[in-house]
Design goal:
The chain is α+β, with helices and mostly antiparallel strands. The protein is built from five helices and four strands. The chain has a single domain, classed as Trafficking protein particle complex subunit 3 (Muramoyl-pentapeptide Carboxypeptidase, domain 2), CATH 3.30.1380. A hairpin with a 2-residue loop joins strand 3 and strand 4. Helix 1 packs across helix 4 and helix 2 packs across helix 5. The longest helix is centred in the N-terminal third of the chain and has 15 residues.
């Protein structure tokens, strides 16, 4: 069995899943993302520094979310930049059909910060899309 799902299959699956879920897609993808994000460390608690390293490795090497992923924590913000995202092209297919794209990255990030001892609260502070497949997301850590 192959270890990786071909991009064309992943994109078709993502599009079909969003269509089947309909109005519930966004809510379910947040839950899906949180579940995926909770898997970054095999420990109950991790430090902020561990989060930075573990999350980048998880997004880049385990999930293979994009061609290049950069994670850094600065001034109480978790900053994530993804280039060559594998989800964005599927969302473009949805948009071309008049539907809303759905991303699970915000949920992944929220799930990833849950075991961090120093974080009591986390909120999505912003996102910026440069072109299809290239975005930055920021999570405020309190």
């Amino acid at each position: 069995m192959t270890e990786e799902i071909p991009e064309s299959l992943f994109q078709k699956y993502h599009v079909a899943l969003v269509k089947v879920l309909g109005e519930d897609a966004q809510k379910i993808f947040v839950k899906l993302g949180r579940e995926l994000g909770s898997k970054i460390a095999n420990k109950e608690k991790i430090s902020l520094k561990e989060l930075e390293t573990e999350l980048e490795n998880y997004l880049q090497n385990d999930l293979k979310l994009g061609e290049k992923v950069k994670v850094n924590i600065e001034n109480n913000f978790l900053n994530v930049e993804v280039q060559g995202c594998k989800v964005c092209p599927a969302n473009e297919i949805l948009r071309s059909e008049g539907l809303r794209g759905v991303c699970f990255l915000p949920g992944i990030l929220m799930g990833a910060v849950k075991p961090v001892e120093e974080v009591k609260k986390a909120t999505v502070a912003g996102s910026q899309k440069f072109k299809v497949g290239h975005c930055k997301m920021q999570i405020k850590l309190e």
